[in-house]
Design a protein that fits this description.
Helices cover 26% and strands 21% of the residues. It has a 4-stranded antiparallel sheet with strand order 1-6-7-5. Strands 2-3-4-8 form a 4-stranded antiparallel sheet, covered by helices on one side. It has a two-stranded antiparallel ribbon with strand order 9-10. It is built from 7 helices and 10 strands. It is an alpha+beta fold. The protein has helices spanning 4-18, 39-46, 128-131, 144-152, 158-163, 173-182, 196-215, and strands spanning 23-28, 51-57, 60-65, 68-73, 79-83, 93-99, 104-108, 115-120, 256-260, 263-267. It binds a DNA duplex (16 and 16 nucleotides) through residues 1-7, 32, 59, 73-77, 92, 109-115, 128-129, 154-156, 160, 163, 165, 172-175, 218-219, 221-222, 224, 241, 261-262, 264.
Length: 276
DNA sequence: AATACTACCTGCGTGC
DNA sequence: TGCACGCAGGTAGTAT
């Protein structure tokens, strides 16, 4: 479900809801969700620990507890829902964090792709999934020179390269299509063939699109809601994703949908040409 | 080493 | 109505 803007929006909502709360117990209903296998140990370790902060790195959420960091990835469909009092799990509730004040944080995930990992306090950056991430998509961290070098070294199509999270983290299937549309680059262009002007435009488009989507509270297409139960509004600003059959807002040519590296891919065949 | 494909899951829409 | 199939804001593991 979520890309960086949605995860950041969830983080901000959770910050308002569970900072300062102490774990009474943790219920795990789907064992494979907990990495490392020992769900009993993870649940036991957290008892008595207090949520001190909630951070984000790429699309990973990091709950900073008293003695551990709990890493949470929502993958495709993970959601958090907060309840002020005891509430029974629904069909797709897989983890419940019970707090000492009687409130609960439920993790729900229809497809069960989401993952949790418990690491030592302050060690989340060493967790494999986080250690390999590229820079956050901001002007001060996402540097043009390194991005251009990364593009030049890859013979992959630019879209799947950007989805790897290595040159920059935070893009998923919606925002990569939006950034490529904004930069007028075809998703199948080989990364090493981008011109200097194109790489500059793409760099700026990535920062711009993700930044604006964070401000909008993310994109709600199907069922995404933040931790406070609110929908995002960026869907009204989409130019490519889900716009197949509609006129390109720049040139009027109909947006097409194809498949690139197994992912549904939307672009303007006039603005974004393969031969560049 | 770099690139490509598949597994992990469930539900929903489409077409026969 | 039923059923098969393709598709869905992602990543990690396994082939090639």
């Amino acid at each position: 479900m979520p890309e960086l803007p949605e995860v950041e929006t969830v983080r901000r909502g959770l910050e308002q809801l569970v900072i300062g709360k102490t774990i009474q117990s943790v219920s795990v209903y789907w064992d494979r969700m907990i990495e490392g296998g020992d769900k009993e140990k993870v649940a036991f370790e957290l008892v008595g620990q207090t949520v001190e902060a909630i951070q984000r790195r790429g699309k990973f959420l990091i709950f900073r507890y008293t003695a551990n960091d709990l890493i949470s990835h929502l993958r495709m469909e993970g959601k958090y829902e907060f309840f002020p009092q005891e509430t029974p799990p629904s069909k797709h509730t897989h983890v419940i964090f019970h707090f000492t004040d009687g409130s609960e944080l439920h993790y729900q995930d229809v497809r069960k792709f989401g993952r949790f990992a418990l690491v030592a306090k302050g060690k989340s950056a060493e967790y494999a999934g986080i250690a390999k991430l590229g820079p956050e998509p901001t002007n001060d961290q996402f540097l043009l020179g390194a991005f251009q070098q990364g593009l030049a070294k890859s013979k992959k199509a630019v879209k799947p390269l950007l989805l790897e999270q290595k040159l920059v983290t935070g893009l998923g299937n919606i925002y990569v299509d939006e950034a490529l549309w904004q930069a007028k680059i075809h998703p199948e262009r080989l990364a090493c063939t981008l011109t200097t002007d194109e790489s500059i435009a793409l760099h700026q488009a990535i920062i711009d699109v993700l930044g604006k989507a964070v401000i909008a509270g993310g994109t709600t297409i199907r069922t995404y809601h933040n931790a406070l139960g609110k929908a995002g509004t960026f869907q009204v600003a989409l130019h490519a994703y889900g716009q197949q059959g509609k006129p390109c807002s720049r040139c009027g040519t109909l947006i097409v949908k194809t498949k690139v590296a197994q992912r549904g891919t939307h672009f303007c065949p006039n603005c974004q040409k393969v031969e560049g």
